[in-house]
Amino acid sequence: MSINKKVGLFIPCYVDQFYPNVAISTLELLQKLGCNVSYPMNQTCCGQPMANAGYERDTVATTQHFLDTFESFDYIVCPSGSCVHHVRDHAPCIEGKETFQKDIQHKVYELTEFITDILKITDIKGTYPHRVGFHSSCHGQRGLRLASSSELNQPVFNKAKQLLAKFEGLEWVELSRKDECCGFGGTFAVTEEALSVQMGKDRLQDHISKDAEIIIGGDMSCIMHLSGIASRNKQAIKFKHIAEVLNEAII
Amino acid sequence: MNHPVQAAKFLEDKSNAKWHDETLWFVRDKRDLSSKSIPEWEKLRELASGIKDNVLSNLDSYLVEFEKNATKNGIKIHWAKDAEEHNQIVLSILEEKDCKAIVKSKSILTEECHLNLYLEENGVEVVDTDLGERIVQFLNQPPSHIVLPAIHLKKEHISEIFHEKLQTEKGNNDPYYLTQAARKHLREKFLAAKVAITGVNFGVAETGEFVVCTNEGNADMGVHLADTHIACMGIEKLIPKREHLGVFLRLLARSATGQSITNYNSHFRSPSEGKEIHIILLDNGRTKQLGREKFRNSLKCIRCGACMNTCPIYRRSGGYSYGSVVPGPIGSILSPGIDLKKHSTLPFASTLCGSCSDVCPVKINIHEQLYEWRQEITKAQSSINAKSIAMKIANGIFSTPFAYKISGQIMRGSLKILPESVTYSNLNTWGKERDLPELPKQSFKDWYKNKGNE
């Protein structure tokens, strides 16, 4: 990729508010990889929480705002599979601006796929001496196909693993149920609270029983849910976003 | 029916919920192994999906072709527009044969029509002959799963039921012993029934024949001993040609249980001498669903149940939590089309994880339809409820950067100053069993600005 291309940093609203370090890591990582990155200050939310709750029609203005904010960039990169999936596949169609919207949708990438598919970097040198479990977010995995899905008869791949696995000292944990949902699910986390929590506990247990030291995820929403349960139950396992890990480990 | 309430109730018995989850995961695991043993699996799914798309697009002509060929073979075809008409047709045939007791092999369609209740009210004894269905029938329960009707029951519980109903030895939980008892009991029913009812897995338009798949051979036993066979069939069950069975039979059993093929795939073409075959073709809302562009391909379903076995919600909430004849993900996209109000919580009983769509042998985009049903349901609900006002406010906030910034600051600010008793009170559902993240001093936006960026 030409270094002169302009990359717009798209930070999910809850990451902006709750997990600034994930955003900072994404910014620094992309800069280390040679990108010309900037963060358009006017961005807000992509509209996903409303759309998944059944109010897609009420996100037209939000979607319009997103398109205007990111119009001038060559690439739009986001450390969340879920938000990217929404912008690409679920955002309501803006009437009269279909081509404009399509053009922008095609420029939106989740962080790991941007690194492996656009920057074409498959081998990042670094050290990360930890035993890690990876939590694939469903929207990233089955929505954006960032990893093969266990239901399909297809060659096994995982873009995050591709980037992490070669770090010196990193031990990759194989889970019993390798891509089961953690139970976050947006408003599902509160409307189906009992199920959501049970699914989270089960997911955590899979990692803990395999002696994972850190759970790495590509979506902070899943991690917020899992870490919230672990913290309440005084489970010592740690959590990181993949941007933080890549940014820390990279040489 | 309210799914969250039922799910929470199911989860109260933690060890039972865990057992249910693991039991169904075991079936999903078997399905994975079996589907991966066939290199052309994804091609088969593609093919099956394409064939079913073709059927749905030409359903009118395939139905006419099927009727013509079946009639030629000596089968009597009946058309039923709804459940009531369907049940009346069944009863009229029974009355004509002066039949007061029937045997029935597994048919979700007759569950949909509540046929058992209707016949019993009209003085006909109905005996479900599928072992799982017989067990739930003893309990006056509907099936909790479309392929594994009694999957929610443990063998100890079944032993108690059999002790009461079939006088088996108390406390004898040996599956072989219990199965033998059921077998003996059912044998008498088979011998006595003059009419047997079955469902239909596939109707072949080209030949006018139909195929019924069972693992226990109970459909064949019933049909061969009876003089009259009534086959109850949804109009979407057609496939164009016999050769297409090769695609569907390979997918069905592997998806359902991980078997390479169902034990009995019985082809019925024409009645033997002195006997009768009737087919009742049922609409009951199917043409309506066919007319809904976003939801029509839910009619491609071949009822394998794989979406239930894979669904992390179904596994942890049980079939009854859905309150619909077909539970699980596929039920959650079929049922709102029948009664939107009654089933309005079902499309929300999902994280939209997408596992159901990836496991589906006919590639129904189940999770996308769940998303679409959500849009329909919120439209149908009053537009002045609290949630919809919140969404309109949210759209206002997120389309205005300044408003977003202020509300974010208020949110982070108030979380910091509110006492824990409020943040984690019952009003805050998130906080019941989960901690909130530690709050950062500043948002990323503030950090970025402080670095001298604008």
Structure description:
The complex is a heterodimer of chains A (251) and B (454). In chain A, strand 7, helix 12 and strand 8 form a beta-alpha-beta unit. Chain A has two domains: 113 residues, Rossmann fold, CATH 3.40.50; 119 residues, Rossmann fold (3-Layer(aba) Sandwich), CATH 3.40.50. Chain A is of the alpha/beta class and 251 residues long. The model of chain A has no long low-confidence stretch (mean pLDDT 95). Chain B has 454 residues and is α/β, with parallel strands linked by helices. In chain B, 52% of the residues lie in helices and 10% in strands. Chain B contains 22 helices and ten strands. In chain B, a hairpin with a 4-residue loop joins strand 5 and strand 6. The longest helix of chain B is centred in the first third of the chain and has 23 residues. The interface between A and B is large, with 77 and 72 residues. Chain B: Keywords: 4Fe-4S, Electron transport, Iron, Iron-sulfur, Metal-binding, Repeat, Transport.
Summarize the structure.
The complex is a heterodimer of chains A (251) and B (454). Chain A has 13 helices and eight strands.
Would you report the number of β strands of chain A?
8
Structural class designation of chain B: alpha/beta
Structural class of chain A: alpha/beta
* Strand adjacency order, main sheet of chain B: 1-10-7-4-2-3
**Over the alpha carbons, how many angstroms does the gyration radius of chain B reach?**
26 Å
Strand percentage of chain B, roughly?
5-15%
Give the CA-CA distance, first to last residue of chain A. 20 Å
The low-pLDDT segments of chain B are none
- CATH top level assignment of the largest domain in chain A: Alpha Beta
- Major sheet of chain B: 6 strands, parallel
Strand segment tally of chain B: 10
User: Which architecture name of the largest domain in chain A does CATH use?
Assistant: 3-Layer(aba) Sandwich
Residue windows where pLDDT falls under 50 for at least 5 positions of chain A? none
